[in-house]
Amino acid sequence: MGGVVLVGVLIGLYVAFLTNGPTPYRPAVAGSGSAKSVSLTLETVAAVGPQLSPHENWVSYLVKENGVWHRSTVWTLPANSAVHVTIYNFDGDSGLRNPFLAQARGIVPGSFQVNGKPTSVIDPDDASHTFAIPQMGIIVPILGVADDAKNQCGYAPCPLSNAHNTISFTFHTGPKGHYRWQCFVPCAAGFVYGFGGPMQTVGYMDGYVDVV
Amino acid sequence: MSMWSSRGHGWRIAALTIIGIAIVMPLVVFVLGPNMPPGKSTPVAEGQVTDNTVLLAVMVPFTVFILVYIGYALWAFRAKKGEELQDGAPIRGHFRAQLVWLVTTTIAVLFLAIFGTAELLADNGAGGGGGPNPVAKPSGATIPVQVIAQQWEFTYRYPTYGGVETATLVLPVGKQIAFHVTSLDAVHSFWAYELGVKADANPGVDNVAYVTTKKVHSFQIRCAELCGLWHGYMFDTGYVVKDAEFSKWIAARQAQFQPVSKYLPKYAPSYSPDPSFRAG
Q1: Number of structural domains chain A divides into
Q2: Which of B42, B92, B130, B222 is the most exposed place for a label (fewest CB within 10 A)?
Q3: Which residues pair with A209 in a beta bridge?
Q4: Complex ipTM above 0.85?
Q5: Is the CB of B155 inside 8 Å of chain A's CB atoms?
Q6: CA nearest to B279 within chain A
Protein backbone atom coordinates (compact mmCIF):
# COMPACT_ATOMS: atom_id res chain seq x y z
CA MET A 1 0.00 0.00 0.00
CA GLY A 2 2.80 2.35 0.95
CA GLY A 3 4.54 1.55 -2.34
CA VAL A 4 1.41 2.44 -4.33
CA VAL A 5 1.12 5.79 -2.54
CA LEU A 6 4.80 6.48 -3.14
CA VAL A 7 4.45 5.69 -6.87
CA GLY A 8 1.35 7.94 -7.03
CA VAL A 9 3.21 10.80 -5.39
CA LEU A 10 6.17 10.37 -7.76
CA ILE A 11 3.86 10.35 -10.80
CA GLY A 12 2.14 13.48 -9.46
CA LEU A 13 5.46 15.23 -9.00
CA TYR A 14 6.54 14.21 -12.51
CA VAL A 15 3.30 15.51 -14.06
CA ALA A 16 3.63 18.72 -12.04
CA PHE A 17 7.20 19.09 -13.32
CA LEU A 18 6.11 18.56 -16.92
CA THR A 19 3.19 20.97 -16.74
CA ASN A 20 4.98 23.65 -14.76
CA GLY A 21 6.14 25.64 -17.77
CA PRO A 22 6.71 29.36 -18.03
CA THR A 23 3.77 31.55 -17.06
CA PRO A 24 1.96 32.68 -20.25
CA TYR A 25 2.03 36.38 -20.97
CA ARG A 26 -1.19 37.92 -22.24
CA PRO A 27 -0.81 41.49 -23.53
CA ALA A 28 -3.71 43.92 -23.18
CA VAL A 29 -5.95 44.12 -26.26
CA ALA A 30 -6.68 47.50 -27.78
CA GLY A 31 -9.66 48.16 -30.05
CA SER A 32 -12.35 45.68 -30.98
CA GLY A 33 -13.66 43.61 -33.90
CA SER A 34 -11.38 43.66 -36.93
CA ALA A 35 -9.38 46.54 -35.43
CA LYS A 36 -8.09 44.57 -32.46
CA SER A 37 -4.40 44.92 -31.75
CA VAL A 38 -1.84 44.15 -29.09
CA SER A 39 1.69 45.31 -28.43
CA LEU A 40 4.45 42.88 -27.58
CA THR A 41 7.66 44.34 -26.21
CA LEU A 42 10.61 41.97 -26.10
CA GLU A 43 14.27 42.04 -25.23
CA THR A 44 16.97 39.65 -26.43
CA VAL A 45 19.99 39.34 -24.18
CA ALA A 46 23.29 37.50 -24.35
CA ALA A 47 23.16 36.45 -20.70
CA VAL A 48 19.88 36.22 -18.86
CA GLY A 49 21.52 36.77 -15.47
CA PRO A 50 21.04 35.27 -12.02
CA GLN A 51 17.92 37.33 -11.24
CA LEU A 52 15.90 35.64 -13.97
CA SER A 53 17.31 32.16 -14.37
CA PRO A 54 19.45 29.49 -12.74
CA HIS A 55 21.31 29.43 -16.09
CA GLU A 56 22.67 32.92 -15.76
CA ASN A 57 24.86 32.74 -18.87
CA TRP A 58 22.18 31.49 -21.22
CA VAL A 59 20.98 33.67 -24.06
CA SER A 60 17.30 34.50 -23.79
CA TYR A 61 14.22 36.39 -24.86
CA LEU A 62 12.46 38.49 -22.20
CA VAL A 63 9.02 40.04 -22.33
CA LYS A 64 8.00 43.34 -20.76
CA GLU A 65 4.89 43.24 -18.60
CA ASN A 66 3.75 46.31 -16.65
CA GLY A 67 7.18 47.82 -17.05
CA VAL A 68 8.99 44.76 -15.70
CA TRP A 69 11.03 42.28 -17.74
CA HIS A 70 10.03 38.61 -17.36
CA ARG A 71 11.55 35.47 -18.78
CA SER A 72 8.39 34.14 -20.41
CA THR A 73 8.29 32.82 -23.96
CA VAL A 74 4.68 31.62 -23.94
CA TRP A 75 2.42 34.34 -25.24
CA THR A 76 -1.36 34.43 -25.57
CA LEU A 77 -2.50 36.59 -28.47
CA PRO A 78 -5.98 37.39 -29.81
CA ALA A 79 -7.04 35.82 -33.12
CA ASN A 80 -7.37 37.92 -36.29
CA SER A 81 -5.57 40.83 -34.75
CA ALA A 82 -2.57 43.02 -35.44
CA VAL A 83 0.41 42.37 -33.21
CA HIS A 84 2.89 45.24 -32.96
CA VAL A 85 6.24 43.84 -31.89
CA THR A 86 9.20 45.82 -30.60
CA ILE A 87 12.41 43.95 -29.87
CA TYR A 88 15.38 45.54 -28.13
CA ASN A 89 18.38 43.41 -28.99
CA PHE A 90 21.40 43.73 -26.73
CA ASP A 91 23.23 40.71 -28.13
CA GLY A 92 26.02 40.47 -30.70
CA ASP A 93 25.84 38.61 -34.01
CA SER A 94 26.12 34.82 -34.37
CA GLY A 95 25.16 34.45 -38.03
CA LEU A 96 22.50 32.36 -39.77
CA ARG A 97 23.37 28.91 -41.08
CA ASN A 98 20.78 29.39 -43.81
CA PRO A 99 21.10 32.87 -45.36
CA PHE A 100 17.59 32.53 -46.83
CA LEU A 101 16.21 33.31 -43.38
CA ALA A 102 17.81 36.76 -43.46
CA GLN A 103 14.81 38.11 -45.39
CA ALA A 104 11.66 38.93 -43.45
CA ARG A 105 8.35 37.39 -44.47
CA GLY A 106 4.86 37.06 -43.09
CA ILE A 107 4.74 40.63 -41.75
CA VAL A 108 2.88 43.72 -42.86
CA PRO A 109 3.67 45.65 -44.97
CA GLY A 110 6.55 43.30 -45.85
CA SER A 111 9.34 45.26 -44.24
CA PHE A 112 10.43 45.83 -40.67
CA GLN A 113 12.22 48.67 -38.94
CA VAL A 114 15.80 48.46 -37.74
CA ASN A 115 16.48 51.48 -35.55
CA GLY A 116 13.66 53.25 -37.40
CA LYS A 117 14.92 52.36 -40.89
CA PRO A 118 12.65 50.23 -43.14
CA THR A 119 14.44 46.98 -43.99
CA SER A 120 13.50 43.74 -45.71
CA VAL A 121 16.74 41.80 -45.48
CA ILE A 122 19.96 41.97 -43.44
CA ASP A 123 23.38 40.45 -43.98
CA PRO A 124 22.96 36.86 -42.69
CA ASP A 125 26.32 37.06 -40.91
CA ASP A 126 25.08 40.02 -38.88
CA ALA A 127 22.04 38.21 -37.53
CA SER A 128 21.91 37.87 -33.79
CA HIS A 129 18.56 36.05 -33.52
CA THR A 130 15.31 35.62 -35.40
CA PHE A 131 11.71 36.06 -34.41
CA ALA A 132 10.03 33.17 -36.24
CA ILE A 133 6.67 31.43 -36.08
CA PRO A 134 7.15 28.94 -38.94
CA GLN A 135 3.58 27.61 -39.06
CA MET A 136 2.33 31.19 -39.48
CA GLY A 137 4.96 31.89 -42.14
CA ILE A 138 6.57 34.62 -40.03
CA ILE A 139 10.28 35.28 -39.79
CA VAL A 140 12.13 38.46 -38.91
CA PRO A 141 15.92 38.55 -38.58
CA ILE A 142 17.33 40.53 -35.68
CA LEU A 143 20.42 42.59 -36.30
CA GLY A 144 23.23 42.02 -33.79
CA VAL A 145 25.01 44.71 -31.84
CA ALA A 146 28.42 45.51 -33.29
CA ASP A 147 31.33 43.73 -31.61
CA ASP A 148 33.05 47.03 -30.89
CA ALA A 149 29.96 48.80 -29.55
CA LYS A 150 30.53 50.69 -26.34
CA ASN A 151 28.58 50.13 -23.13
CA GLN A 152 27.42 46.58 -23.93
CA CYS A 153 25.04 44.89 -21.53
CA GLY A 154 26.30 42.25 -19.12
CA TYR A 155 23.49 40.45 -17.35
CA ALA A 156 19.83 41.07 -18.11
CA PRO A 157 17.58 42.86 -17.69
CA CYS A 158 19.38 45.39 -19.84
CA PRO A 159 18.44 49.09 -19.70
CA LEU A 160 18.07 51.01 -22.94
CA SER A 161 21.19 52.98 -22.01
CA ASN A 162 23.18 49.87 -23.04
CA ALA A 163 24.15 49.34 -26.68
CA HIS A 164 21.23 47.81 -28.57
CA ASN A 165 19.32 47.67 -31.82
CA THR A 166 15.58 48.27 -31.94
CA ILE A 167 13.60 46.06 -34.30
CA SER A 168 9.90 46.68 -34.80
CA PHE A 169 7.28 45.13 -37.05
CA THR A 170 3.64 44.09 -37.24
CA PHE A 171 2.01 40.78 -38.10
CA HIS A 172 -1.55 39.48 -38.15
CA THR A 173 -2.45 36.46 -36.08
CA GLY A 174 -5.14 34.84 -38.25
CA PRO A 175 -7.31 32.04 -36.83
CA LYS A 176 -7.05 30.41 -33.43
CA GLY A 177 -4.28 27.90 -32.97
CA HIS A 178 -1.34 26.70 -30.96
CA TYR A 179 2.00 27.50 -32.58
CA ARG A 180 5.62 27.21 -31.66
CA TRP A 181 8.10 29.98 -32.16
CA GLN A 182 11.87 29.74 -32.20
CA CYS A 183 15.16 31.45 -32.93
CA PHE A 184 16.89 30.13 -36.04
CA VAL A 185 20.31 31.53 -35.22
CA PRO A 186 22.44 28.97 -33.35
CA CYS A 187 23.18 31.42 -30.58
CA ALA A 188 23.83 29.23 -27.54
CA ALA A 189 27.30 30.12 -26.36
CA GLY A 190 29.27 27.17 -25.04
CA PHE A 191 27.26 24.48 -26.82
CA VAL A 192 28.30 22.47 -29.87
CA TYR A 193 27.67 24.62 -32.95
CA GLY A 194 25.60 26.88 -30.68
CA PHE A 195 22.60 24.52 -30.84
CA GLY A 196 22.22 23.23 -27.26
CA GLY A 197 20.96 24.60 -23.97
CA PRO A 198 18.78 27.67 -24.51
CA MET A 199 18.23 26.76 -28.19
CA GLN A 200 16.55 23.55 -27.07
CA THR A 201 14.65 24.88 -24.05
CA VAL A 202 11.28 26.59 -23.91
CA GLY A 203 11.66 29.74 -21.86
CA TYR A 204 14.83 31.00 -23.54
CA MET A 205 15.06 30.95 -27.37
CA ASP A 206 11.90 28.89 -27.94
CA GLY A 207 8.29 29.24 -26.93
CA TYR A 208 4.63 28.99 -27.84
CA VAL A 209 2.11 31.40 -29.23
CA ASP A 210 -1.46 30.57 -28.26
CA VAL A 211 -3.84 32.41 -30.57
CA VAL A 212 -7.23 32.52 -28.85
CA MET B 1 -5.18 -43.94 -35.76
CA SER B 2 -6.82 -42.37 -32.72
CA MET B 3 -8.66 -39.09 -33.16
CA TRP B 4 -6.25 -37.58 -30.67
CA SER B 5 -3.04 -39.05 -32.11
CA SER B 6 -0.30 -36.56 -32.94
CA ARG B 7 -0.96 -37.17 -36.66
CA GLY B 8 -4.63 -36.31 -36.07
CA HIS B 9 -3.65 -33.04 -34.45
CA GLY B 10 -1.37 -32.27 -37.35
CA TRP B 11 -4.06 -32.82 -39.97
CA ARG B 12 -6.57 -30.76 -38.06
CA ILE B 13 -4.11 -27.86 -37.64
CA ALA B 14 -3.22 -28.07 -41.33
CA ALA B 15 -6.89 -28.09 -42.35
CA LEU B 16 -7.76 -25.16 -40.09
CA THR B 17 -4.72 -23.23 -41.38
CA ILE B 18 -5.75 -23.76 -45.01
CA ILE B 19 -9.31 -22.68 -44.26
CA GLY B 20 -7.99 -19.63 -42.39
CA ILE B 21 -5.70 -18.66 -45.27
CA ALA B 22 -8.53 -19.11 -47.75
CA ILE B 23 -10.62 -16.64 -45.75
CA VAL B 24 -7.96 -14.08 -44.80
CA MET B 25 -5.88 -13.94 -47.99
CA PRO B 26 -8.61 -12.51 -50.29
CA LEU B 27 -9.49 -9.96 -47.61
CA VAL B 28 -5.86 -8.86 -47.37
CA VAL B 29 -5.24 -8.75 -51.11
CA PHE B 30 -8.52 -7.32 -52.34
CA VAL B 31 -9.96 -5.34 -49.41
CA LEU B 32 -7.09 -4.16 -47.18
CA GLY B 33 -4.35 -4.07 -49.83
CA PRO B 34 -5.72 -1.32 -52.10
CA ASN B 35 -6.22 0.89 -49.04
CA MET B 36 -2.71 0.47 -47.69
CA PRO B 37 -0.58 3.59 -47.19
CA PRO B 38 0.69 5.84 -48.66
CA GLY B 39 -2.08 5.94 -51.29
CA LYS B 40 -1.86 6.29 -55.04
CA SER B 41 -0.85 9.89 -55.67
CA THR B 42 2.36 8.96 -57.52
CA PRO B 43 3.66 5.82 -59.28
CA VAL B 44 6.21 5.42 -56.46
CA ALA B 45 3.44 5.58 -53.85
CA GLU B 46 1.40 3.07 -55.88
CA GLY B 47 4.41 0.78 -55.93
CA GLN B 48 4.64 1.04 -52.15
CA VAL B 49 0.97 0.09 -51.83
CA THR B 50 1.71 -3.02 -53.94
CA ASP B 51 4.81 -3.79 -51.87
CA ASN B 52 2.92 -3.45 -48.61
CA THR B 53 0.18 -5.73 -49.97
CA VAL B 54 2.73 -8.36 -51.05
CA LEU B 55 4.46 -8.20 -47.65
CA LEU B 56 1.14 -8.68 -45.89
CA ALA B 57 0.20 -11.55 -48.23
CA VAL B 58 3.49 -13.31 -47.47
CA MET B 59 2.84 -12.87 -43.76
CA VAL B 60 -0.69 -14.28 -43.92
CA PRO B 61 0.10 -18.06 -44.09
CA PHE B 62 2.63 -17.83 -41.28
CA THR B 63 0.43 -15.63 -39.08
CA VAL B 64 -2.64 -17.79 -39.64
CA PHE B 65 -0.66 -20.95 -38.92
CA ILE B 66 0.74 -19.55 -35.66
CA LEU B 67 -2.64 -18.26 -34.49
CA VAL B 68 -4.36 -21.55 -35.39
CA TYR B 69 -1.63 -23.49 -33.63
CA ILE B 70 -2.00 -21.38 -30.45
CA GLY B 71 -5.78 -21.55 -30.54
CA TYR B 72 -5.81 -25.27 -31.25
CA ALA B 73 -3.32 -25.96 -28.45
CA LEU B 74 -5.36 -23.95 -25.96
CA TRP B 75 -8.50 -25.86 -26.93
CA ALA B 76 -7.22 -29.39 -27.48
CA PHE B 77 -4.73 -29.61 -24.66
CA ARG B 78 -6.63 -27.76 -21.97
CA ALA B 79 -7.05 -29.47 -18.60
CA LYS B 80 -10.43 -31.13 -18.21
CA LYS B 81 -12.53 -30.28 -15.17
CA GLY B 82 -11.26 -32.25 -12.19
CA GLU B 83 -8.30 -33.58 -14.13
CA GLU B 84 -5.14 -33.99 -12.12
CA LEU B 85 -2.32 -31.63 -13.02
CA GLN B 86 0.35 -33.64 -14.76
CA ASP B 87 3.46 -33.09 -16.81
CA GLY B 88 3.11 -33.05 -20.59
CA ALA B 89 4.67 -35.49 -22.99
CA PRO B 90 8.39 -34.95 -23.52
CA ILE B 91 9.22 -32.77 -26.51
CA ARG B 92 11.24 -34.53 -29.19
CA GLY B 93 12.61 -33.33 -32.47
CA HIS B 94 10.50 -33.89 -35.58
CA PHE B 95 12.72 -33.85 -38.63
CA ARG B 96 9.98 -33.44 -41.21
CA ALA B 97 8.27 -30.56 -39.32
CA GLN B 98 11.58 -28.81 -38.83
CA LEU B 99 12.46 -29.27 -42.50
CA VAL B 100 9.11 -27.90 -43.67
CA TRP B 101 9.46 -24.85 -41.37
CA LEU B 102 13.05 -24.23 -42.46
CA VAL B 103 12.29 -24.56 -46.17
CA THR B 104 9.13 -22.42 -46.15
CA THR B 105 10.66 -19.60 -44.11
CA THR B 106 13.84 -19.68 -46.25
CA ILE B 107 11.76 -19.45 -49.41
CA ALA B 108 9.77 -16.55 -47.92
CA VAL B 109 12.88 -14.61 -46.89
CA LEU B 110 14.64 -15.20 -50.23
CA PHE B 111 11.51 -14.20 -52.12
CA LEU B 112 11.25 -10.97 -50.11
CA ALA B 113 14.93 -10.16 -50.67
CA ILE B 114 14.65 -10.68 -54.44
CA PHE B 115 11.25 -8.96 -54.66
CA GLY B 116 12.48 -6.02 -52.57
CA THR B 117 15.62 -5.55 -54.66
CA ALA B 118 13.66 -5.78 -57.91
CA GLU B 119 11.14 -3.24 -56.68
CA LEU B 120 13.87 -0.84 -55.54
CA LEU B 121 15.50 -0.97 -58.96
CA ALA B 122 12.24 -0.87 -60.93
CA ASP B 123 10.96 2.19 -59.04
CA ASN B 124 14.32 4.03 -59.14
CA GLY B 125 14.84 3.77 -55.42
CA ALA B 126 11.14 3.46 -54.55
CA GLY B 127 11.06 6.98 -53.13
CA GLY B 128 13.94 6.40 -50.74
CA GLY B 129 17.18 8.31 -50.95
CA GLY B 130 19.81 6.59 -53.07
CA GLY B 131 22.73 8.69 -51.88
CA PRO B 132 24.67 11.11 -54.12
CA ASN B 133 24.92 8.56 -56.96
CA PRO B 134 21.80 6.39 -56.98
CA VAL B 135 22.17 2.95 -58.53
CA ALA B 136 18.81 3.26 -60.28
CA LYS B 137 18.08 6.47 -62.15
CA PRO B 138 15.02 7.26 -64.23
CA SER B 139 15.42 7.94 -67.93
CA GLY B 140 14.30 11.27 -69.31
CA ALA B 141 14.47 14.78 -67.95
CA THR B 142 14.07 15.51 -64.25
CA ILE B 143 13.40 18.75 -62.42
CA PRO B 144 15.89 19.00 -59.54
CA VAL B 145 14.53 20.35 -56.27
CA GLN B 146 16.83 20.69 -53.30
CA VAL B 147 15.39 20.03 -49.87
CA ILE B 148 17.36 21.82 -47.15
CA ALA B 149 16.62 20.68 -43.62
CA GLN B 150 17.61 22.55 -40.51
CA GLN B 151 16.42 22.76 -36.92
CA TRP B 152 13.40 23.02 -37.42
CA GLU B 153 12.22 23.84 -40.89
CA PHE B 154 12.51 22.60 -44.46
CA THR B 155 13.29 25.07 -47.23
CA TYR B 156 13.55 24.31 -50.94
CA ARG B 157 15.84 25.44 -53.75
CA TYR B 158 15.03 25.23 -57.44
CA PRO B 159 18.40 25.22 -59.30
CA THR B 160 16.78 25.32 -62.74
CA TYR B 161 14.87 28.45 -61.77
CA GLY B 162 17.81 30.64 -60.84
CA GLY B 163 18.48 28.81 -57.58
CA VAL B 164 15.58 30.54 -55.88
CA GLU B 165 14.94 29.29 -52.36
CA THR B 166 11.42 29.09 -50.94
CA ALA B 167 9.70 28.18 -47.69
CA THR B 168 7.02 26.12 -49.46
CA LEU B 169 7.36 23.08 -51.70
CA VAL B 170 5.38 23.37 -54.92
CA LEU B 171 5.78 20.94 -57.83
CA PRO B 172 4.39 20.88 -61.38
CA VAL B 173 2.08 17.97 -62.22
CA GLY B 174 3.15 15.22 -64.64
CA LYS B 175 6.87 15.84 -64.17
CA GLN B 176 9.75 13.73 -62.99
CA ILE B 177 11.27 15.30 -59.87
CA ALA B 178 14.72 14.61 -58.42
CA PHE B 179 14.80 15.60 -54.76
CA HIS B 180 18.30 16.43 -53.52
CA VAL B 181 17.96 16.16 -49.76
CA THR B 182 20.56 17.64 -47.41
CA SER B 183 20.85 19.20 -43.96
CA LEU B 184 22.59 22.20 -42.47
CA ASP B 185 22.88 20.83 -38.95
CA ALA B 186 21.55 17.64 -37.39
CA VAL B 187 20.23 14.49 -39.12
CA HIS B 188 16.67 14.99 -40.37
CA SER B 189 14.49 12.98 -42.75
CA PHE B 190 12.36 14.42 -45.52
CA TRP B 191 9.09 12.47 -45.59
CA ALA B 192 6.59 13.59 -48.23
CA TYR B 193 3.97 11.07 -47.23
CA GLU B 194 1.49 11.00 -50.11
CA LEU B 195 4.29 11.28 -52.68
CA GLY B 196 5.84 8.09 -51.27
CA VAL B 197 9.17 9.86 -50.72
CA LYS B 198 11.22 9.42 -47.57
CA ALA B 199 14.89 10.34 -47.69
CA ASP B 200 17.33 11.06 -44.87
CA ALA B 201 18.79 14.55 -44.67
CA ASN B 202 22.40 14.32 -43.53
CA PRO B 203 24.74 17.30 -43.22
CA GLY B 204 27.24 17.41 -46.08
CA VAL B 205 25.41 14.72 -48.08
CA ASP B 206 23.33 14.98 -51.26
CA ASN B 207 20.70 12.25 -50.92
CA VAL B 208 18.78 11.87 -54.19
CA ALA B 209 15.21 10.53 -54.39
CA TYR B 210 13.02 10.40 -57.49
CA VAL B 211 9.28 10.74 -57.91
CA THR B 212 6.90 11.51 -60.76
CA THR B 213 3.94 13.71 -59.93
CA LYS B 214 0.66 12.36 -61.27
CA LYS B 215 -2.21 14.53 -60.12
CA VAL B 216 -2.94 17.92 -58.62
CA HIS B 217 -3.12 17.56 -54.85
CA SER B 218 -1.60 18.67 -51.57
CA PHE B 219 0.61 16.43 -49.49
CA GLN B 220 2.04 16.29 -45.99
CA ILE B 221 5.71 16.85 -45.30
CA ARG B 222 7.20 15.75 -42.00
CA CYS B 223 10.59 15.25 -40.50
CA ALA B 224 10.92 11.53 -39.77
CA GLU B 225 14.11 11.65 -37.72
CA LEU B 226 14.09 12.77 -34.10
CA CYS B 227 16.02 16.02 -34.42
CA GLY B 228 15.59 18.08 -31.26
CA LEU B 229 13.08 20.20 -29.35
CA TRP B 230 10.72 21.08 -32.19
CA HIS B 231 10.97 17.84 -34.17
CA GLY B 232 7.24 17.27 -33.63
CA TYR B 233 6.52 20.68 -35.15
CA MET B 234 8.72 20.18 -38.21
CA PHE B 235 5.90 19.68 -40.66
CA ASP B 236 4.63 21.46 -43.70
CA THR B 237 2.21 21.12 -46.61
CA GLY B 238 3.41 20.69 -50.18
CA TYR B 239 1.45 21.14 -53.39
CA VAL B 240 1.37 19.58 -56.85
CA VAL B 241 -0.13 22.12 -59.23
CA LYS B 242 -0.77 22.57 -62.94
CA ASP B 243 2.13 23.71 -65.11
CA ALA B 244 0.81 27.24 -65.64
CA GLU B 245 0.16 27.69 -61.95
CA PHE B 246 3.67 26.47 -61.13
CA SER B 247 5.23 28.91 -63.61
CA LYS B 248 3.29 31.75 -62.06
CA TRP B 249 4.21 30.67 -58.53
CA ILE B 250 7.93 30.27 -59.19
CA ALA B 251 8.06 33.68 -60.91
CA ALA B 252 6.36 35.24 -57.90
CA ARG B 253 8.87 33.60 -55.53
CA GLN B 254 11.80 34.78 -57.66
CA ALA B 255 10.49 38.31 -57.32
CA GLN B 256 9.65 37.98 -53.62
CA PHE B 257 13.04 36.59 -52.60
CA GLN B 258 15.14 38.69 -54.95
CA PRO B 259 16.46 40.82 -52.02
CA VAL B 260 17.98 37.82 -50.23
CA SER B 261 19.24 36.11 -53.39
CA LYS B 262 22.56 38.00 -53.25
CA TYR B 263 23.31 36.38 -49.91
CA LEU B 264 22.50 32.79 -50.94
CA PRO B 265 25.49 30.57 -51.64
CA LYS B 266 25.88 29.28 -55.18
CA TYR B 267 23.76 26.17 -55.65
CA ALA B 268 25.70 23.10 -54.50
CA PRO B 269 24.81 19.47 -53.71
CA SER B 270 25.29 20.25 -50.03
CA TYR B 271 26.46 23.12 -47.85
CA SER B 272 28.90 23.36 -44.98
CA PRO B 273 28.10 26.58 -43.18
CA ASP B 274 30.84 27.81 -40.92
CA PRO B 275 30.29 26.74 -37.35
CA SER B 276 28.42 29.34 -35.40
CA PHE B 277 30.62 32.11 -34.10
CA ARG B 278 29.68 30.76 -30.70
CA ALA B 279 30.46 27.12 -31.34
CA GLY B 280 31.33 25.52 -28.08
Answers
A1: 1
A2: B92
A3: A75, A179
A4: yes
A5: yes
A6: A193
